[in-house]
Amino acid sequence: MAKEKGIYILFDGIFENMYFDDEENYRSRILQIAAEQGALEKVVVVDSLSKTRNFAGKRLGFLASADREMVDTITNIVLSRRCNPPLTVGPLLSFEGLARKVKALRKNTPNIPLERIVEYAFGEEDYAFSKNSFITMFQEWNAWDTQVLEYYKGNLQIVKALLANSSSGWSPDEAAFNTFVRSAKPGSDINSMDFLAKLMFTLGTYTQVGPCFGISQKTWDNELGIWTRISYACSRRDLIEALTRLVIFTQFYQEKNFGDPNKFPVLQMRFDKQI
């Protein structure tokens, strides 16, 4: 349909290569389908290093498309509007893109030597690094890629162990970095924003709650409950400390009816009105 109607498909690939099942990584189904349909030029991939390289806050990202004219237009806009043009981070993003390409090729052709795959991947393009230096960097990059997913998997197990008795719901955790847990069941006296604010101001721990990710806060509070997002891409010491605070606060919030406006001041603010 995209090809026939001239529609662009915007694909957010930030978590695409962070599956715990490595067979799912670097095998983009969206791009495979688009290639089979001859519609790659209608797919625009938006990605970043925020999650895969744990560079959240650095705002290092990229856009990719087979539509060369569109890419050139966007590049010109970026160059004209920013003081730090892509040239400043270009080599890093070029390496990241090439490394992903090589890893995907190795998955499909495991018996071909790495040197031959790199030779093919480089093609006629010019890069800021040689093929030999790329191979060295790629091996380090690939080792880190494997180790970090194992680290995240271990952190997720810690999250589930520490919150097992205080949470009543979990998101399906197929990929890394964040998980979503239900800290309070739905009810008429539930207020997600009040829970969020009191957790932050009483224990200095910040999270994000369900309404931040869509659907009205009324639906979350009355039908789904208070769901909190937990990022476990951090040191285990910090993670355990934050989870301990969350457990203590969740128990106090429920046992003492901390969200009851007849007993305590309640933040009368709804996320729906802030967007």
From TrEMBL:
Aminotransferase class I/classII large domain span: 2-77
Enzyme Commission number: 2.6.1.-
Protein's name according to its UniProt entry: Aminotransferase
Signal peptide: none
Superkingdom of the organism of origin: Bacteria
Lineage of producing organism: Bacteria, Candidatus Roizmaniibacteriota
Family: Belongs to the class-I pyridoxal-phosphate-dependent aminotransferase family.
Needed cofactors: pyridoxal 5'-phosphate
Record's keyword terms, sorted: Aminotransferase, Transferase
One GO molecular-function entry: pyridoxal phosphate binding
InterPro entries with a match to the protein in the record: Aminotransferase_I/II_large, NHTrfase_class1_PyrdxlP-BS, PyrdxlP-dep_Trfase, PyrdxlP-dep_Trfase_major, PyrdxlP-dep_Trfase_small
